[in-house]
Amino acid sequence: MGKTKVYELLAILDFSNVRKRMSVIVRTPENRVMLFCKGADTTLCQLLHPSCRAIRDVTMGHLDDFASEGLRTLMVAYRELDSSFFCAWSKKHSEACLSLANRENKISRVYEEIEKDLMVSVRKPGTNWKHDGGQQSAD
To answer: For residue range 64-93, what is the model confidence (pLDDT) as tens digits?
Structure first.
């Protein structure tokens, strides 16, 4: 059996029908700050880092096949964050959440600042997803 790891939850970026995604920001046991985003494939594909272009194109082909069969799909993507960048972003996020005027717009802009240049997490059937993007056989 695997070893249990505990992640510290730093922030939750709420789901909305407009955003079609939600994210969490965590600190890993290795002290890395990571953003994990889950949402509609068409939405997340627009937020991927340019280095993911080839895998995005292949993945979207598969997702189109699934959709033609009537299956709903979600995508998971991630981004490692520099600690100083996260600290600065966290202050902006707090200010937006406490704002009395245009709170929703301010929060949306702050979310957009951090939910970009994501890396795609691809999972083959019969495997379990691991946070480092690796594959592991299903038991």
So the answer is: 888 888 888 888 999 999 999 999 999 999
